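Appendix C reproduces, verbatim, an entry submitted by the partner laboratory led by Prof. M.T., so that reviewers can inspect both the input and the predicted structure.
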Amino acid sequence: MTTTCDTTKNQPLLDVKGLRVAFGGKPVVHGIDLQIAAGEKLALVGESGSGKTVTALSLLRLVQNADLAGVANLSGSQAQRGARDLLSIPERELRGIRGKEIAMIFQEPMTALNALYTVGDQISEVLELHEGLSARAAQEASVQLLADTGIPEPARRARSYPHQLSGGQRQRAMIAMALACKPRLLLADEPTTALDVTVRAQILELLADLQRKYGMAVLLITHDLNLVRRFADRVAVMERGHIVEHGPVGTVFEAPQHAYTRKLIDSHPARDVAEAAADGAAPPVLEARALRVSYPVSRPGFAGWFRKGEFVAVQGADFRIAPGETLGVVGESGSGKSTLALAALGLLKHRGELQVTGKGWAVDRASDLALRRTMQVVFQDPFSSLSPRMTVEQIVGEGLRVHAPELDAAARRARALTALADVGLSEAQFPALLDRYPHEFSGGQRQRLAIARALIVDPRLLVLDEPTSALDVTIQKQVLGLLQRLQRERGLSYLLITHDVEVIRAMAHQVIVMKDGAILESGPALRVLDAPEHPYTQKLVAAALLE
């Protein structure tokens, strides 16, 4: 059965009718209809696996091994009359449309950007190919595009490779590349997932300004309902390959008709943490005093031949984490949050005092091995942190090979099953669970695998680096609930790195606010968030409230 999503515009820029997508005969998108008018902002929302991204990728025929059916008519531009069916036109003609008339911002910039080329070269390539600019003009334009997205030091960042940028900076580079040719339609697949709240607001404002200036239409693929509320004109809610509800944003959010829509709207992070002991008598699990982390950088001119400069990423940081306590670290991209976490894990050289359970990192494998068992990490993107060539048993049990070599294969297997059960994954749900690979799981399930891998060695402290930023709202709530339960049951301490103020509110006992490597404000989480004293903290909280 086809579900129709109408628009009030008479001649839509894109008219999709009966779009069906199947893999190996199994349908994942079931005959949906979508219409997008020129200059309109339509949001397509739903949980992971609902078919949102597959729908967008199918419009440009970027999904491999997919069977496509239906019609996707793109209206003609001033230079070309007549509509073109994106699903049936020759590949050569479609290549001329990709990037110029229809551009796409992909969800994960690290996999979408080429690691062998600078971001400036990659943006320039688009301008040279579609706009016919000279190499020099394209380079100048790429710097300006990076500046338009709010990236700091755009000229220097244009000469950087993707791995040299933070997650938020890579996403902004992707946005600059997508907007290079001023497309008529922008397909934005989770364009602000990796961005902090203030930069997210800047990107939304940028997209809105360009959309108004050039009459660009936007199809926004997202799980962030706050983003939809602020940005979109209309919203279509997708569940299991069907559009179950659609209409103006205000109407759908104020009076949702479908139970699935109501479920999405009600999925807010909820605070459910046991208050840690207030006397401070227990020795801290992690403590830092005057922590300083710096990197050598090249100096311009002849001076750089003789002596390197220095970039200070973390300066004079003081903090402590008690047993069973969560310390939230919040700040914009480039504030030093992740550098602080890497130093805490003993992965970066540092100055000052840093102790884990009363012991300092010796930067020596034998001396540090016991500390590494005490302190484990859960990364932001489980898809890139879990090896695609290893089974679940190998991934989850890997830590036991290092920290419990006395265990045989049967004991490691039993411990792996117990750890997986603790995070809500069982063989009853997933037959042959231990023999599966990461790609066989959803994003939320992969994050549970990452948590199980960290828990299997019985750590006292988990470093959580943006543990829910890539997850949709319902799965985010589930993962946060899992972490809250594990903390209560095991007495775990967390060092929580995030740009999401609401996650801090739900999880943290204490919070430190960072900017440019320095701690600007610290204290009990609810006190800092409800009555921030520093102007920068006030800015972060205000940006979160606007969402």
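The two ends are 35 Å apart (CA to CA). Additional entries are available on request from the coordinating office.
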